[in-house]
């Protein structure tokens, strides 16, 4: 009887312990650290990288990376983590990305994405805790609810990643993030290097537009006219060469993408940066 009793008690303790471990699965002291939207020749090479701000924030099984459209309405899920990750030191990362992103950067994704990110205006969020997203990044002309995130960051640029400035947690996406060269890192600590798209075409080198540069200012008069915006549209459509207005190609990719057109339009409406 005593042996049977001990076995029963052990079984109860094991069940309680297992239930408690499942119930307490921390993943909420985490920030979105990098978001990459692909390159001009590899537009499906996308990733979202999170960083743990405290130890053991690695119990992410079932947590999603979700997207929102420009007006705040729900977009498709970027993907769902299918398991926890092993490394949980403060500063460790985990990353969800597409198969093309894994090929482009030469590292394994901790979770392969099943969807795509929203361009050019939207929001991306990680996880759900206590009824709210754990952390989000709004960008471009996002007009939905961005509680806790302040003003949206600038519009994305293909070939560039939104990168959080160190430990900036000011609650303002516009100042916490900047467009920089991508540096994805997985939970194993491997950092990817921008390489070739799976189609074999070389990926343009990501560059940051010069400080004070005015996207769309073709004649360098520090303003963007409607005619210059039309020129930019024609370049984007392939009806005019980039050489007709290189100011619409600040990253030197040899093409004009939607984010650059939007920057030009914004400069036409609000004036060039001082």
Explain this structure to me?
The chain has two domains: 151 residues, Sandwich (Immunoglobulin-like); 66 residues, Type 1 dockerin domain. A hairpin with a 2-residue loop joins strand 7 and strand 8. It contains five helices and ten strands, in the order αβββββαββββαβαα. It is globular and about 55 Å long. The strands form two sheets. A six-stranded mixed β-sheet has the order 6-5-2-1-9-10. It has a four-stranded antiparallel β-sheet with strand order 4-3-7-8, with no helix packed on it. It has 274 residues and is of the alpha+beta class. Helices cover 21% and strands 20% of the residues.
CATH class of the largest domain: Mainly Beta
The CATH homologous superfamily of the largest domain corresponds to: Lamin Tail domain
Q: Give the amount of beta strand, in percent.
A: 15-25%
Radius of gyration: 22 Å
**What's the rounded overall pLDDT mean?**
84
Number of domains: 2
**Which blocks of ≥5 consecutive residues have pLDDT under 50?**
1-24, 200-209
CATH architecture label name of the largest domain: Sandwich
**Element order: H for helix, E for strand:** HEEEEEHEEEEHEHH
Total of helices: 5
Instruction: Note the overall shape.
Output: globular
Main-sheet strand order equals 6-5-2-1-9-10
């Amino acid at each position: 009887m005593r042996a049977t009793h001990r076995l029963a008690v052990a079984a109860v303790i094991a069940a309680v312990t297992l239930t408690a471990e499942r119930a307490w699965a921390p993943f909420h002291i985490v920030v979105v650290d990098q978001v990459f939207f692909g390159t001009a020749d590899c537009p499906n090479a996308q990733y979202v990288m999170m960083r743990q701000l405290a130890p053991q924030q690695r119990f992410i099984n079932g947590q999603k990376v979700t997207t929102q459209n420009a007006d705040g309405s729900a977009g498709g899920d970027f993907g769902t983590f299918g398991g926890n990750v092993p490394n949980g030191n403060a500063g460790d990362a985990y990353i969800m990305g597409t198969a093309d992103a894994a090929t482009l950067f030469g590292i394994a994704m901790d979770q392969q994405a099943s969807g795509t990110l929203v361009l050019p205006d939207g929001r991306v969020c990680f996880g759900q805790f206590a009824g709210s997203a754990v952390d989000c990044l709004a960008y471009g002309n996002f007009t939905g609810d961005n509680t806790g995130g302040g003003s949206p960051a600038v519009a994305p640029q293909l070939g560039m990643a939104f990168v959080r400035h160190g430990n900036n947690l000011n609650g303002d996406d516009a100042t916490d993030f900047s467009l920089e060269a991508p540096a994805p890192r997985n939970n194993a600590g491997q950092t990817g290097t921008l390489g070739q798209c799976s189609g074999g075409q070389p990926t343009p080198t990501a560059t940051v537009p010069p400080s004070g540069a005015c996207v769309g200012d073709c004649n360098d008069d520090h303003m963007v006219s409607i005619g210059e915006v039309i020129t930019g549209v024609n370049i984007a459509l392939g009806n005019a060469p980039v050489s007709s207005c290189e100011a619409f190609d600040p990253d030197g990719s040899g093409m004009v993408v939607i984010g650059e057109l939007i920057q030009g339009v914004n400069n036409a409406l609000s004036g060039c940066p001082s």
